[in-house]
Structures are given as C-alpha cells and as structure tokens.
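Protocol step 4 of 6: structure prediction from sequence.
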Amino acid sequence: MSTLIQIEVLQVALATAEGTQDYSSREKKRSIAMNYWPISVSTSTRNNRGIALATVVLVVFAVPLFSAGAVLPGKATNATPGPLPAAAAALPPTISKIFVPDTVQQNGQVLLSFTITNPNSDPNPNVTLTGIQFNDTLPAGLEVSSPSQLSNNCGGVVTAIPGSSSISLSGGSLDPAVQLRPVPKISAQLAQPVAAGSCFISVEVKATSVGVLNNTTDPISANESGPGTASNTASLTVTATPTVLPPAAAKAFGDVSIPINGTTSLTFTITNPNATTPLVAIELTDMLPSGLVVATPNGLTGSCVTGNGAVVIANPGTAGITLLTLTLPGSSSGANTCSFSVNVTGVSSGVKNNVSDNVTATFDDGTGSFIATTGNAASASIVVLVPPSITKSFVPGLIAPGGVSVLSFTIANPAVNPVPLTGVGFTDTLPANLVVASPSGAGGSCNGGILTAIAGSNAISLTGGTIPSNGSCTVSANVTSAVSGNYNNSVTVASANAGTGNTASATLTVARPNLSITKTHQGEFERRETGTYTIIVSNSAGSGPTLGTVTVIDTLPAVQHTLAPIAISGAGWTCNLATLACSRSDSLAPGASYPPITLTVNVPKNIREHVTNSATVSGGSDLNSHTAKDRTHIDEGDERDHGDDHGDHHGDGHGDDHGDGNTERAPAKHRGGH
C-alpha cells in the first residue's frame, strides 16, 4: 500500500517503459494513486476555445505496489516499473551563536542567541527537519539568568534552568526555506514546524567571573540527517565590577503586630555606601502587600524629604509608596544615609510580608556619562491581628434570692491569628444588687493573668492574660443577689497586641419559688383496715427554684377515734412518724415536683364516716405556706354491725360529732361504699 497524496488534477501522465500514458480519468487516477509512483502531474488552464493558456507541472512521489508482470491501468500488456532511485540523505541542520552584547560587566546579563538553519532548501531537495536537538555547555563563569527570558520559535523543548550551566533543545522542527512541492496528506499527524528556513532561540545569561568566556555548542542533529557540526565559537568579554557601589535600602515597621484597622509607621532607610561618589536620582517603589494600605493621614516625614530633596508619593488608602529624585553624596565615613516614614493601616488579618522593588540610582563615571546602578530590595514583616472574642454565662441562669450562680467568661484567640494574644483582660461591673458571692469561687487565670473577684464587691476583672494561637481560656466567679429581678450583665474584652474585641452579655434571673401541695387517696377507707394518702409538693412554672429546707407537715383529722399513722416516707425526704413531718433541702426547679410522700394510717372501727386530712408545705425561700385538704369517706359497714346505737348521737365514738354541736350523717348515696 502506498503512503500517497490524494490530489485532484486535470491530467495525469505515467512514464513507463512503453512510453507516457494518459491517465486523466478518475478511475485511472485512482489506480495510479493506489499502485504507482506518479512522477508527472500536469494542470492546464484553457480559454473558452480550448486553447491552453498555462500548464503547471508538480512532481510528487509514492511507493508502487506493482510486481513484475502487473497490468498497467488502461493497457492490455504487462509492464514492470523500473527500480526507483535511492533517496538522498537529508543535510543536517547548522547552528550559529552570538552574545548580545559581547561585552558586559561582572554579574551583568546578556542575551545568548542561537540561529538554526535548514540547508535542505532549493536548490537542494526540500526536506523538513524534525527531532532537532543540541546541547550547549556554558563555560565556567557563565550561568542562565533568573529569569531566563527564554524565547524560542524552533519548536520542541528548550531547557534553560536559571542558575544552571547548560542550555539544550530537543524535538525541534524546521521547514525548508522555500517549499515548492505539495505537503503530503498522511494518516499519521506529525508535529508541524514552527519556522521555515531558519529559527531562533535566545536565553539571558549572567556573567559571574571576569575574563573572555568562549562558548561552542555541541554538534546539532535531526531525525532526517543525523548529527551535523558544532557551532561557531562565541566570545563574551566580562569586565570587572566598577568600584562604585549601588545604594542600599532597608525598611522596618514600627510594631511587630497591630490590630486590624490599627496603624503603625513604616520607615525606609536609604544608604550611599560610597566614600566620594554621589548617587543621584535614587528611586524606590514599594507596593504594600494585600491587607495593608497607606493610612489617613499618611504621616509622611523624614530627612530624605526635608534635607535631601526627595519626593515621596504615598496617597492615603492606596498600596503604593514611591521615592523619587533623592540625591545622597558620598561620605568620608564610608556611608551617607537618610530616612523617611509613612503610616500604614492593617485592613485584613494575617502575616504581611512586605518586599520593595530594588532601589536604583545613577552616578557619574567621571566622563560626564551617568551609569545606572541597582541595589537591593528592602523587606519587613508585620502581623495584623484579629482581636479576642469573649462569651459569658450564668449557671444556673435562675436562682432564688440568696442563691448562687457561677458567672463564667470564655475568651478565644481567633484561628486566623498566627501569634498569641497578650495583655488580655476585661472588667465586668455587675448590675445593682448583684454581687460576688462568699466564697467567691474565683478560678482561672488565662495563662498568667490575674483574676480579681472580691466577695461582696460588684466587679470581676482579668488583667495580663495570654492566649495561644487558636486557643482559649475560661475564668469564673460566684455571684448572688438577695433581691428578685432580672440582671442583664455585659462585658468587653481587649488585648495589648490585637486591640478591643466584642461585647458579650448574659442575664441572671432571681425569683422566689411558688410551692403548691396536693394530698389524695384512692377509694374509701374500710374500718379496721389501713388507708394510704399521697402527698406531692410542686413548684410553679415561671417562679424561682427553692433554696433551703422545704418542710411538709401532715395534720390528722381532729375527731374522736381519729386515724392512726403507722408509716410515712418518700424518696429523698427525711420523715418523722411521730410528728408527721418530712423535709428536704435540694433545690426544686420551676415546673418540677418532688417525689411523693406516702402516709399510711390505720382506720379505727368507730371513726366517724367523713373526715378531712390536711398537709402543709413551707420553706425553700417561699414566703408563704400552702395547705392541701383531703376529705375522706369511711365505709359505714362496721359501724352498723358493731355499734349499739345507730341513731344520730355519736358521743360514743360512732357518730359524726365535729365538736360544734352539729351532727352529720353520711348521705344515703354513700351507704354501702363507693
């Protein structure tokens, strides 16, 4: 199969042993394209009368697949194409080089330029060279500059690492200078050359030693040709560094850190290190890093401005500071300096590394010509800090008068701060009627700080605390009040190096409890049996918690042959059967109830039919007592069976005498029980 170009032509001629044959038809052209080397392709232009005006002949090549004896298209006889001539090897590329300029001072930079030429151009056979490569080892005292300022239109990859001593090309490609033959269309996609005839590569190099530096590139090669010859030898003359030294610049911030939106000074010091040579037109540009701007007002001052005629541009709110037109004479002491300062403001947090451009100047070389010289870049750093944050809380947030709540303060150093916060503190003035309890329970110091909370006083303060980066600390003290009310309390935190932080608030409610009591039983009591009462003490929602001892006292019915208690108890209660009193001191929260008290009694056979049992609760800082009554029906069955008098007189213990001369009898509906 031939790797052949598909070309539409008007006339195709094939040269064979039998002579030139016409293969102008589409089918014949297709046959030739598949099997022969077409060596003559003609395209004619004719007028409307068929007269040829111009004919263009193009020469193309393909690989024939005909074997001996094959039949030529359009012919009845066999023909065997003659052998093709062997293809001539392509000529290798050539390379030349030059330093621009060819003289430089020590530590100066020059361009090293390479020119690569493809010799396979008319009158030579046109050949595109691919895979072009070379290596150039720089002589001692010469290195690739940083940045390298690399320029390349030869394709491929040029390796020129700043600071290294070699430059190389691999995979380059280059068309012939003049291309008369059509470019074949083939299925494989080849890298297209980026230049024709000649291409150029340039790299900036730095001369680090004095002398004549000679440089020759190794032989260049290409895929189509193999290796060629080395380049010419280019020479660079490096002269000694002049004795005039460039200016020096230094800078410093007035503080190691500032709070966000805080301001500090930025001072620049410019030095002429030469004893006798003045430096003129000294210039320096400093672009502040993101998060720093020139303050308002800028506070510009300094001897460079007042004594040396410099112009400083530092517009408030911008990030640029520029020094212009400064002149510094030489000094017999070996240095002459001036300084200027500008105020800057931190508008975002973080570490701000500030590096200026290189300071520049000119000097008279003694001939009236002013030579430019470049000095160093000045650098300084500052940290812009976010202030500390504080939260506070009362635990519990609701107490009875005289109760105690723990007031806690938690202070944090925001994670964006890369350094500890120092001098952290606050002063919390408590509202009226709220004081530090006794004992104060003061605790915490925030890493070396001093917490002050004196019992009976109305203030809590912290001074000199330190909080590590992304850290926090907590301090606390007990507070109390004897007066009911809502106590809203606010405090603001601050630090020495990050300024004032937020204000935190919390509310403590002081309220008395509002107790209630219930007393119940189930069904009616049977004579000569036992009965059980259940007593429950609760605290109203919206009131305060109890404080101190809560006491419940049960009072039996004041009747003859009254109920006889045999047991009284409840979880968490301390009860006395003799006095029918129960007490406890744990706090009962609003809306909650204590565990019930159970009172068990014997029911005498001759007790009256209806009795009322009561229980009273008091204490817990509730100023009032509260009583619950439980009217109890006694079954009358035993009274009918054992009494000797079933009338309405109860003087013998079987009636309902209340001691007031009145007589009660159970309604008929109660007879026989419930």
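Step 5 (inspection) to follow. The domain at 248-385 is CATH 2.60.40.740 (Immunoglobulin-like).
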